[in-house]
Specification:
The protein has 206 residues and is an alpha+beta fold. It contains eight helices and eight strands. The radius of gyration is 16 Å and the shape is globular. The chain starts with a helix and ends with a helix.
Length: 206
């Protein structure tokens, strides 16, 4: 499995050399919209569940929670910048609530792993909620407490909750990777054992 995983991620390092990929534009919310930021391991795998939700306007893969300005994928994946791979979501609160986004987040991660997710290991693949304001902070803390009390598994919930900091969009070839490269995405996701572990944690979800 590690060989499959490494092949998929190493291929991603070659893409910018072949295509000259540029970073995406930072996501922005207009009046009436809001932003949510979550880290749940490989950002390729965190865009799809949020894109399915009515009221989600956009998802952007990127890096946040670190100490280096304008980090690159190579720097973040190597470790040492403090950043996590994350997704930044622009959404319409009248159509989808932050509580619904939190529920989607929890059910698409392994909240029992402190440093890494699934086959990806290292702080850059940690799970973390980055709240934008006091209301999001309160809801995130409450959802974590509720999960720890009602969870269907025995291990403690170790996902972090932190104030949002600068979000750096990832290189363009990472955006919507599951749509641009569906076969490579499925190959990586299966090889990483993500869905198998999610089913172990949460059971089968419709």
């Amino acid at each position: 499995m590690q060989i499959i995983h490494r092949a998929g991620r190493l291929f991603a390092l070659l893409i910018p050399l072949l295509s000259g990929a540029l970073a995406a534009e930072p996501p922005a919310a207009v009046p009436g919209q809001a932003i949510a930021t979550f880290a749940g391991g490989c950002f390729w795998c965190m865009e799809p569940p949020f894109d399915k939700l009515e009221g989600v306007i956009s998802t952007t893969s990127g890096y946040t929670g670190g100490h280096k300005d304008n980090p690159t994928y190579k720097e973040v994946s190597r470790g040492g910048t403090g950043h996590a791979e994350a997704v930044q979501i622009v959404y319409d609160p009248d159509k989808v609530s932050y509580a619904e986004l939190l529920d989607t987040f929890w059910h698409n991660i392994d909240p029992t792993t402190a440093s890494g997710q699934f086959c990806d290991r290292g702080d850059q693949y940690r799970s973390e909620i980055f709240y934008q304001d006091a209301t999001q902070q309160q809801q995130a803390l409450a959802s974590k407490q509720a999960l720890d009390e009602l969870k269907p598994f025995t291990a403690p919930v170790v996902t972090g909750i932190s104030a949002a900091s600068t979000f750096y969009p990832a290189e363009e070839y990472h955006q919507d990777y599951y749509q641009k490269n569906p076969l490579r995405y499925k190959f990586y996701r299966h090889g990483c054992g993500r869905d198998k572990r999610l089913e172990e944690l949460w059971g089968t979800r419709e």
